[in-house]
Structures are given as structure tokens and as C-alpha cells.
């Protein structure tokens, strides 16, 4: 069976870079909207949020800005600046991992875990998602010379950390706790399925990186569910929450 690359050997990333730029803009806009409407609806009071959470939010906004800027730079042909910004973003991703895990633990300590999540689920969620995000980012960097892999994995990494935005957009308190996370996963998958549709249109087949990203997304959700069911995870979450 022919691969996507073999289907159109002359296919260049410049052919459809505008698609990836627009997709990155939609993803960034949706995440920002999800958090902004949550605050505007009064579910969070910014003045009462710990400084660490604000820093975490600013760093995540920084990543979204980098994602959009990198796609714009690739489309404009400014590959030198694209590379420089890419290497600089390594430190940003490191900060995202540290702050994401720290923010999750702080929420447990302050008893601010969303009521539709158990403490064990929330602990698994906050650790697994940012770790998977960093792993996808690292893989994308390692494959930076394979542009079709690189840009799809960068989008895939960002889709993985879209979950908190959907958690604020969906009426999670009205959804069965066992179904809610998978509904979020389905909505996240829409963006990867959009890439799959695009792949078939321009290359004649779905690119392996798109399938890899989709498998990673579903694997992350399955791993979170499995870890949350472990007594050891519940014990760890309780220890953090009680300061034991």
C-alpha cells in the first residue's frame, strides 16, 4: 500500500502551509476563548488565583503564540528565524512541564480540583498530558528535517493539551464522569481528523504522522483512565491534598 509521501513525491510543504497556519490559529483561538469565557462567567476570580497559576497561563499563551508564529514563518520562507525560535521554545516546553505539574499539585493542595474529577484522575491528568506534550514536541524536534512529520507532530502535541479548554467549554457537571473525558477526546480528535481529511485531499492518503498523533491522543486518555483507577494513584493524590 502506497504511503502518503509516495502518493505525491513532488509534494512540498509550501503547497499547503496556509492550511496548517489557519489550523494553528483556530486551535490557539479556541483555547484562549475556552479560558476567557470561563473567567468572564465568574467561575474563577483572577485576583484570587495564586501567582503560579498566572505564570502557568502566561507560559501556555507563549506556546500558542510560538505555534502560530512558527507556522507563519514557515509559510513566509523565513526558515532561519523559524529555526532560532524553535530552539528557543525548548526552554518554554520545559517550563510548561514543570508549571503544569506544579499547578496540578497546587490545585490538589488547595482543594480546587473540579468537582467532576476525582483527585486521582486529576493527578493523572495533569502529569500525563504535559509529559505526552513534551514527548511529542521532542519527537517533532528530532524529525525537524522531515517537515511533514514535524508540523503534524507539533499540532498533535498542542491538541493533547487542549483538554483543559474543552473542560471549560463543555457542561462537564451535567455529563457522566466516565463519559466526559472521552467526549473531550472526541472533540480533540476532530482537529486531527481535519488533518487526515486534508492529507487525503493533497497527498492521496493519510500521513503516518497524523495517525501517530491520533493514536497518541487516544493513548493519553486511556492511560489517564488506567492510572486514575489505581489505588496507588488515589493514595498519592490524597497525600498531596492533605500534605501528608
Automatic annotation (TrEMBL):
Keywords: Membrane, Transmembrane, Transmembrane helix. The chain crosses the membrane at residues 19-39, 51-73, 85-108, 120-141, 211-241. This is Adenylate cyclase. It comes from Novosphingobium cyanobacteriorum.
Amino acid at each position: 500500500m502506497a504511503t502518503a509521501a509516495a502518493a505525491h513525491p513532488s509534494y512540498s510543504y509550501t503547497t499547503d502551509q496556509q492550511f496548517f497556519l489557519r489550523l494553528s490559529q483556530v486551535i490557539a483561538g479556541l483555547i484562549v476563548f475556552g479560558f476567557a469565557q470561563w473567567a468572564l462567567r465568574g467561575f474563577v476570580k483572577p485576583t484570587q488565583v495564586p501567582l503560579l497559576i498566572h505564570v502557568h497561563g502566561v507560559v501556555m499563551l507563549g506556546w500558542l503564540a510560538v505555534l502560530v508564529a512558527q507556522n507563519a514563518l514557515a509559510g513566509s520562507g523565513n526558515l532561519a528565524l523559524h529555526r532560532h525560535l524553535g530552539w528557543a521554545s525548548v526552554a518554554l516546553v520545559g517550563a510548561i512541564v514543570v508549571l503544569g505539574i506544579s499547578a496540578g499539585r497546587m490545585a490538589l493542595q488547595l482543594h480546587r480540583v473540579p468537582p467532576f474529577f476525582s483527585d486521582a484522575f486529576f493527578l493523572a491528568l495533569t502529569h500525563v498530558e504535559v509529559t505526552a506534550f513534551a514527548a511529542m514536541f521532542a519527537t517533532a524536534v528530532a524529525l525537524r528535517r522531515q517537515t511533514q512529520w514535524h508540523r503534524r507532530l507539533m499540532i498533535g502535541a498542542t491538541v493533547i493539551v487542549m483538554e483543559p479548554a474543552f473542560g471549560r467549554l463543555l457542561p462537564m457537571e451535567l455529563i457522566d464522569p466516565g463519559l466526559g473525558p472521552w467526549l473531550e477526546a472526541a472533540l480533540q480528535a476532530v482537529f486531527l481528523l481535519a488533518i487526515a481529511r486534508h492529507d487525503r485531499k493533497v497527498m492521496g492518503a493519510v500521513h503516518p504522522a497524523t495517525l501517530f498523533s491520533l493514536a497518541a491522543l487516544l493513548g493519553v486518555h486511556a492511560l489517564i483512565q488506567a492510572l486514575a483507577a489505581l489505588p496507588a494513584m488515589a493514595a498519592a493524590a490524597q497525600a498531596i491534598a492533605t500534605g501528608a
